[in-house]
Amino acid sequence: MIRVLLVDDMQLTRGALRALLEQEVDITIVAELGAEPGLVQVAAVMDPDVVIFNTELLNGHLLSTIAELQANTKQCQALVLMDKKRPIVFPPGRRSCAPNFLVKDAAPGALVKTVRRLAAGDRVIDERIAVAALVGAETVLTHRELEVLGLAAEGASVGEIAGSLYLSLGTVRNYLSKIIAKTGARNRIDAIRIAREAGWLV
C-alpha cells in the first residue's frame, strides 16, 4: 500500500485530491493538512511514501521544508504540483532535496501514475515544468534586487544600501526578504553565497 500525505491550503482541492487517490486500491491517504507549523513532525509520525504539495504559502521556504522533511523520514518522496507558467530555479545548495514536479492541470490519471512511480523510487519532473525552469533560470532576481544584494555582498548595511539607492529602509528590507525567498536561502549571507555560485553576482 502506498502511503500519501496531502499538503494543500484549500479544503476543496484537498478533498478532490483525496477522493481521486483513494479510488485506487493500492493508495491510502495517511494525513491531510495545510502548509502549517508541525508539517514535518506529522510526516515523521505518519511515515508517508509520498508527500504531495499543492500550496503557495510556503513560497521560498518550499525547498528547505522538503529537505527537512526528507531528513526526518525514511524513504519519503516529495511531489510539488506547480503552475507551468512559473519558472523553477534550483539554487546551488538546494538541489540535494530533489523534489518532483507535476503541472497542476495534469490529467487525474497522470497524478496517480506519478504517485506510483515515486513510490517505486523514480524521479519525476514534468517536461513542461523543466522547460519553464530553463527559461526562468536567468531572471530569478530583478535588476534592482541584484543591486541591493550586490551592495549587501560588499558589506553595506540596510541604511547604507538605502542611501546609495535612494530607497527607504523598509523598502530595502522588503527587497532583502524577497531575495531570500526567491533563492530559498536561510538568510542574507546564504542568499549572497547562492547568488555568487549561480553567477548572478561577481
Structural features, described:
This protein folds into two domains: about 1-135, Rossmann fold (3-Layer(aba) Sandwich); about 140-200, Winged helix-like DNA-binding domain superfamily/Winged helix DNA-binding domain (Arc Repressor Mutant, subunit A), CATH 1.10.10. It is built from nine helices and five strands, in the order βαβαβαββαααααα. The chain has helices at about 10-20, 40-45, 60-70, 110-120, 125-135, 145-155, 160-165, 170-185, 190-200; strands at about 1-10, 25-35, 50-55, 75-80, 100-105. The protein has a five-stranded parallel beta sheet, with helices on both faces. The N and C termini lie far apart (about 50 Å). The relative contact order is 0.12. The model has no long low-confidence stretch (mean pLDDT about 85).
For the structure shown, list the relevant keywords.
14% strand, alpha/beta, Rossmann fold, single chain, 2 domains, Arc Repressor Mutant, subunit A
Percentage of residues assigned to helices:
40-55%
- At the first level of CATH, the class of the largest domain is Alpha Beta
Q: Estimate nothing, just give the exact number of structural domains.
A: 2
* Backbone structural class: alpha/beta
Largest sheet: 5 strands, parallel
Look at the structure and name the CATH superfamily of the largest domain: Response regulator
